[in-house]
Amino acid sequence: MEYKESKFNMYVKHHNQNFIFNTMHGSLIQVDAQELPILEHFHQELVDHGFIIPNDFDEIEYLKQKRIKAISNKDALYVRILTTSFCNARCYYCYEQGLKQENMSEDTAIDIAKFICSISQETKFLNICWFGGEPLLNPHVISIIINYIKEHHINQNLKIVSSFITNGSLINDEIIYNMVNNWYTRDIQISMDGYGNEYNLIKNYVNPNYNFDLVVENIKKLIKTPIKIRVRLNINRENFEESKQLINYFEKVTGHPQNFKIYPGFLFDGENNNNKQIIHIDEFTLKKDFADYLNNHGYSCTLSTQRRNLGCYAGRIDNFLITPNGQLYKCAQHYADKKSHCLGDIYHYNDIDQKQWIQDDLPSKCFNCICLPLCQGGCKAARNTHLHLQVCHTTPKEIEYSVHLLIDKMNDK
């Protein structure tokens, strides 16, 4: 059998040592300089881990088939539900500014639960992300939807998992009890914007009793539960250094519990074009500096080096964002695009409009990109909305950075 080198081999020099990382298989191998090029120094380990492949194996076609299968896979269903479009914070960068504000009614909640049951009859795993606005302004409908699905779903063995995207200000003992015991909560994302007063200024809560100190106390309560807490630090130029102070503060007051993670959410061009403090997506040096700071303080910050089968949840059939009045969109960016039309509602939706989101229509540049197995085409909304979004959120420089961290971790063992 004749062989060729994988097109997804990344050559990395680390402290004068040679490594190859394969983005298709997540494989990493150290090689001596005299073993290069690898095709001339064939051994079975290179084949076993995907660095060398048979001549007739088409890696691009293989990834395409993975995408096509993932698009129509109904074993798992992801639904993002807005319990409300009201929010108790007034962040300047919020992409929902100008959208209609409304709360979900109890009747709509029941109808949403019925809709989910109807589209998930083949589903084994249901992941509901509670979103807003601020989802905890209207928590009653969460119980209505989950209780209805548990009672009426055709698959009584259906596994339900909840996640929340919240500012964390409304978390209290009752909410935590429901999250742990009734809402099947696996993880919570809490967004934070700088340290102390900087946070208060950016969040600009309607009620000043909601503030930085309260949110930190709520996070400390959550850490005592089995729920995974992910604190997203929204980073721009203005609060870049302030956010480092926040990392120091969390390290002091929470330490490094296993269910607690901090990660950066960089505000890129397109998320708020009127703000000069945003960070351009190509500014790798800035992003690396912040990632280094997190890693040096014990909070692992690295890209996933595992292959993905689909670019984003919006590309899978019947994965929807559902608004408080039952309208259907494919994702939060689609909802935020004031020039786009919804796909219908929970009573009737246009399957034809959904097709543009679930087509396997990657840009031609993707097929020559070493990142393809790790991003599978990136953000669908960047191609299907009028927003100025970046398609690529995975770059070769960021992968190489993650590989260096992976090598260091292996050497520490």
CA-CA gap between termini: 37 Å
Query: Globular, elongated, flat, extended or rod-shaped: what is the shape?
Result: globular
Give the strand tally.
13
Q: State the strand order across the main sheet.
A: 11-10-9-8-7-6-12-13
Describe the structure.
The protein has 413 residues and is an alpha/beta fold. It contains 14 helices and 13 strands. An 8-stranded mixed β-sheet has the order 11-10-9-8-7-6-12-13. Strands 2-3-4 form a 3-stranded antiparallel β-sheet, covered by helices on one side. β3 and β4 (27-31) form a beta hairpin. α3 (106-119) runs parallel beside α4 (140-152). The chain starts with a strand and ends with a helix.
Walk me through the topology.
Layout: E1 3-5, E2 9-14, E3 17-22, E4 27-31, H1 44-48, E5 52-54, H2 59-71, E6 76-82, H3 106-119, E7 125-131, H4 140-152, E8 159-166, H5 173-181, E9 185-192, H6 197-203, H7 212-223, E10 228-235, H8 240-253, E11 260-266, H9 284-296, E12 320-322, E13 328-329, H10 332-336, H11 351-355, H12 372-375, H13 381-384, H14 396-412
Helix pairs in contact: 3-4
